[in-house]
Amino acid sequence: MAELTTNPADxxxxxxxxxxxxxxxxxTLDAFLGQSNATAVRLEAGDDARALLPYxxxxxxxxVSFPKFRDGRGYSSARVLREAGYEGELRAxxxxxxxxxxxxxxxxxxxxxxxxxxxxxxxxxxxxRYAHFYQRAADPVQPVWKLRHG
Length: 150
Prior knowledge:
Blueprint (H helix, E strand, L loop, with lengths): L4 E2 L7 E2 L11 E2 H5 L6 E4 L17 E6 L6 H11 L5 E6 L6 H7 L3 E4 L5 H8 L16 H6 L1
Parallel strand pairs: 3-4, 4-5, 5-6, 6-7
Antiparallel strand pairs: 1-2, 2-7
């Protein structure tokens, strides 16, 4: 797994990828579908991530908006994209709280741009809180029942 990195110029930005961050601004889903050269897309809470499935091979960044921490539609978008084979950067942006980092990582997010900064030590503590999980997810972690019973 990639190491957690931060960008000093962007307070609170967290990233779990080894490649260089994508600098191109993300366009809306409608704008992306209407043009042919964008490599970064922003999904709003009501957008259907399945619209991106035919284009996954040319998208470097999908930024998923979380307008409110209690809006869970972005989790579904992440899982849809990862299960379809998307390997690019998947960024959660907006009202992202530290206690959401672990479930977001399990759904496939590998970078975070929260509105309120989260320091690296707090993020690492939140992400390492549990050693085992009961549910399957988009990540490669085996559920504890699978470890026990093969």
